[in-house]
Amino acid sequence: MILFVVAVAVLLSIVFALLRAFLGPTVFDRILAVNSFGTKTVLLIALLAAASGRGDYLDLALLYALLNFIGTVALLRYTEQAPRRQEGS
Amino acid sequence: MASFSPMKHAISLGVLLALLWWCLSGYPKPLLLGLGLGSVLFTVWFAHRLDVVDHESHPLHISGALLAYWGRLTLEIVRSSAQVIGMILSPKPAIAPYFLRVKVGQPSDLGKVILGNSITLTPGTVTVLVNGDEFLVHALSPASGNGVRDGELDRLIPDDCERPA
Amino acid sequence: MSLAHLFSTVLLGTGAAMLIIGSVGINRFPHFYSRLHAAGVVDTVAAGLFLAGLALYFDPGLVTVKLLLVFVFLLFTSPTACHALARAAYSSGLREPAAGDDR
């Protein structure tokens, strides 16, 4: 029961993060929202592991935490290059 | 033990990796244990080839002092997160964000990394730029920023970061 | 209901409340740099409470160690990502309109 309530809370906070991702206004706000989305996804997977009683799912949570970090840094690298390319053209 | 010994760090890295493999797998079957041993040895060799097995990636010499530091950091995080939560929940958020420059007393790169990450981890303050021994920090309000300005965490970091074990 | 379950319920509930507060903060705060701080609360405090609650929910064993590992990874990657974000925003010229530079 408590797991269900907490899962709804996590989903609600994901909706808030998505709202910020849509509203922007700068690209960094959007990346921040996506990064925070990723952290909440990790927590949601951990919750799913508890709800279904399978500790193995925690491996997925671990992997997702690492991928989330790499994805954020890769996106940031892309934003750093974007203005330079405009200057050149 | 004043000289730098790569062997000690390689062994400690290997033990750490073997522990990690055991925690993530947890099956005592010969095949899986053999695969684990193989990948641990490969990773240690690979890290050695990349030349990243040193006192920076693997701060053996200060690990004891770091535990005490983490305890202190947790206290700091709890206190400042209460501040930030109060600001989020107040009907008119009383925030006055500003940038501040602070001189830090950490001579080594490792000390600077620990301090910069601690400042970012504490809610209410984010390290934006690191320039020599000067940090550019963004603070949510003077209440959060003053802790960084006073350099409380700066003094608490174990100060023998530079000395190789 | 055992004592461990009671503690885990309290921890999970507090963690979920922190998650909601943090994501409200991301939407309420006026500018990018202040939103960064609200997201920081979620990453450190909420995730810590949440994973501690789950660790008490499971029986102790390898699962507890895995939850600790997830927490440690979050603890090491989230400030790095946060710093990278702030640095990229600063060096691309984003400044806060109301804030002075070094007061």
Strand % of chain C is under 5%
What would the average pLDDT of chain C be, to the nearest integer?
A: 82
Structural category of chain A is mainly alpha
**What is the tally of beta strands of chain C?**
0
| Average pLDDT reading of chain A | 83
Number of helices of chain C: 3
Task: Explain what this protein looks like in three dimensions.
The complex is a heterotrimer of chains A (89), B (165) and C (103). Chain A is mostly helical. Helix content of chain A is 90%, strand content 0%. Chain A has one domain (2-88). In chain A, helix 1 packs antiparallel against helix 2 (27-52) and helix 2 (27-52) packs antiparallel against helix 3 (57-88). With 165 residues, chain B is mainly alpha-helical. Chain B has 2 domains: 6-50; 60-156, no CATH class. Chain B has helices spanning 6-25, 30-50, 63-89, 109-121, 142-150, 152-156, and strands at residues 98-103, 125-131, 134-139. In chain B, a hairpin with a 2-residue loop joins strand 2 (125-131) and strand 3. In chain B, helix 1 runs antiparallel to helix 2. The longest helix of chain B is centred in the middle third of the chain and has 27 residues, at 63-89. The radius of gyration of chain B is 20 Å and the shape is elongated. Chain C has 103 residues and is mainly α. Chain C has one domain. Chain C has 3 helices and no strands. The chains are: A mainly alpha (89), B mainly alpha (165), C mainly alpha (103). Chains in contact: A-C, B-C. At the B-C interface, helix 1, helix 3, strand 1, helix 4 and strand 2 of B face helix 1, helix 2 and helix 3 of C.
What descriptive keywords fit this protein?
heterotrimer, B: 165 residues, mainly alpha, 2 domains, 3-stranded antiparallel sheet, 3 strands, 58% helix, C: 103 residues, 3 helices, elongated, disordered C terminus
In short:
The complex is a heterotrimer of chains A (about 90), B (about 160) and C (about 100). In chain A, about 90% of the residues lie in helices and about 0% in strands.
Question: What is this structure's SSE topology?
Answer:
The complex is a heterotrimer of chains A (89), B (165) and C (103).
Chain A: H1 2-23, H2 27-52, H3 57-88
Helix pairs in contact in A: 1-2, 2-3
Chain B: H1 6-25, H2 30-50, H3 63-89, E1 98-103, H4 109-121, E2 125-131, E3 134-139, H5 142-150, H6 152-156
Antiparallel strand pairs in B: 1-3, 2-3
Chain C: H1 3-28, H2 32-57, H3 62-91
Helix pairs in contact in C: 1-2, 2-3
